[in-house]
Specification:
Length: 216
């Protein structure tokens, strides 16, 4: 789920819910700048918001990994989707992205679940023998964005991710990395601000922000 920030000149302090790198688990491996060629459908059935796509992933190169398992070029389609139940107000779905907060303009409590499945997308070689495996990802989350009686607002997010790229897979990312260091002499996770962010395993993340309006 990609999130968007809002600015407001009346704010004196706002701790916003942020968007960590592991929420883009295939970025830099099977997409181009976060994009894939897809057939995409989205909409609402009562309070159920749905987004589902069948994608033809791109293959750019092998990203920096800390294990013997790497991405595998293939022509298989990937299937992905996200579904959320909106208990109070409905989120604005004009854009394909969710808003990170509404600054007290809406009363939101949503519970969602998503998945990504790409068959035969990973490879691991031992003694010239190749073991091929799938990318199987799923997650559940809860989002609360609620105005408060003192003209403030609270925004919070709790998510659980279960990622399977194959045994011991680990990949680094470097956001807006300007380093020109030779990768051969860099640390294992890569040069500059690169850090281990994506891999096989389970992740729990929670965040909370509080809005304080200017007084006087």
């Amino acid at each position: 789920m990609s999130l968007k920030r809002f600015n407001n000149s009346k704010l004196t302090e706002f701790l916003a819910v942020d968007n960590p790198g592991f929420t883009y688990p295939i970025t830099g491996a099977y997409d181009r700048l976060g994009r894939q060629l897809v057939v995409y459908a989205r909409g609402n059935l009562n309070r159920l918001n749905y987004r589902i796509a069948v994608a033809k992933p791109f293959y750019i190169n092998n990203p920096n990994t800390g294990s013997g398992i790497t991405e595998r070029s293939n022509n298989n389609m990937a299937v992905k989707g996200y579904f959320s139940w909106q208990f109070f107000d409905k989120e604005n779905d004009f854009l394909p992205y969710m808003t990170m907060n509404n600054l007290g303009r809406a009363k939101l409590f949503n519970i969602g679940a998503g998945f990504y499945q790409h068959s035969d997308a990973m490879t691991e070689k031992w003694n010239k023998e190749e073991k091929v495996s799938d990318i199987s990802l799923w997650a559940v989350d809860a989002f609360l964005d609620m105005p408060l009686g003192n003209n403030g607002a609270i925004t919070s997010f709790l998510g659980y991710c279960n990622y399977d790229f194959g045994k011991d897979y680990l990949r680094s990312m470097g956001k807006m990395n300007v380093s020109t260091m030779d990768g051969a002499i860099a640390l294992g996770q890569g040069s500059g601000n690169s850090e281990w962010e994506i891999g096989t395993g389970k992740i729990v993340r929670g965040e909370m922000g509080y809005l304080i309006l200017k007084r006087g």
